[in-house]
Amino acid sequence: MITGSKGAATEAQQYVWGGAIPLQIHLHESEVTTLPPPPPALILAPRVGYLPLLVPQIKPFFSSSLPPGVDTVWFEYKGLPLKWYIPTGTLFDLLCSEPERPWNLTIHFRGYPVNLLIPCEGEDSVKWSFINSLKEAAYVINGNCKNIMNMSQSDQTELWRSVLNGQLEAYLRVYSKLKLDIVGDDFSLNLNPSRQTNSDNEATGITKSGKIPVRLYVRTIDEDIDEVEDAPIVDSWEQIYYINCPVEVRGEGKDFSLNDAIKALLPMLFTEEASVDVDSQAPESESGEVSDGGSSRSSQKNGESLSAHAGLFKDGTEIMLVRIQGIEPRLDIPFGWVAKNLMNPEQYLHICIYVKTVQP
User: Fold this and answer.
1) Domain ranges in the chain?
2) pTM of the predicted model, to two decimals?
3) Region Disordered: start and end of each range (predicted)?
């Protein structure tokens, strides 16, 4: 994350942290023990938050209707168990091809699907998942995670509470001590580490980096549709490819755009050699499979259409949508602006891409 002057939040960061999704939560019918069944719970979920953190607000709506037993809470959307460690806003962007408001989710307090989801013990599990992700991001940015490991207990508590309560200014107070800034300004990033001298780094006290931590989610669509709103529901996580890979720019004298970042993360989509590169680790899905790629088009109403890059893609697939923090951005937007303004608190940029894989 890059903050504004004197560590102040940018306007876009304030919008991201203030963003929320209206949820309508239904108790699964198998766990209803009263007549009539309880009405759904209506709450606002922070985009940068996590579903398990909402349980203390949700449970009072359903506690009198639950069967006896120990709570093992999990959520589902149209039959798909939701991965609790993915930010709520990212889940929404990924699974709702046409934004659904309120977003209708089902909550379970029993029968945790241990074969499909990593166990979650409530807030503690979410907290340690968040801290581990922050360590990973620090390693990408600085080459080590010493600043995270050396955080005082009070700073760690303040950092987590700021995320839990959606307090951006409190978050930035601690974040400024972690020295995770990336070289850049409001409009572009110069991510060539060789241009940063030792004296520059010593003067600022900040380790400059050429890498941006990115988590890319590729939703595959195997039906021949014209509009992304017609995409079939996701009924299995096998339809989602998950790529956890830093983006690094190589070369001088050119602005690095969101389109360049996509080319770096998904080089298999392009027929020409990408002008940027990623870390040498091959992008893999959670199942360990290398993700497939495709050609280009976008259903965006504003900004540059992906169809402008159709010549760069292989035949038979289309990128139909790119979505970040609920936004369908122009592809020519400087990636520096995206990284500065749209990162999540754990310092990963979460990008959702819809790819149609139907062969002509």
Assistant:
1) 16-108, 123-180, 211-356
2) 0.81
3) 276-303
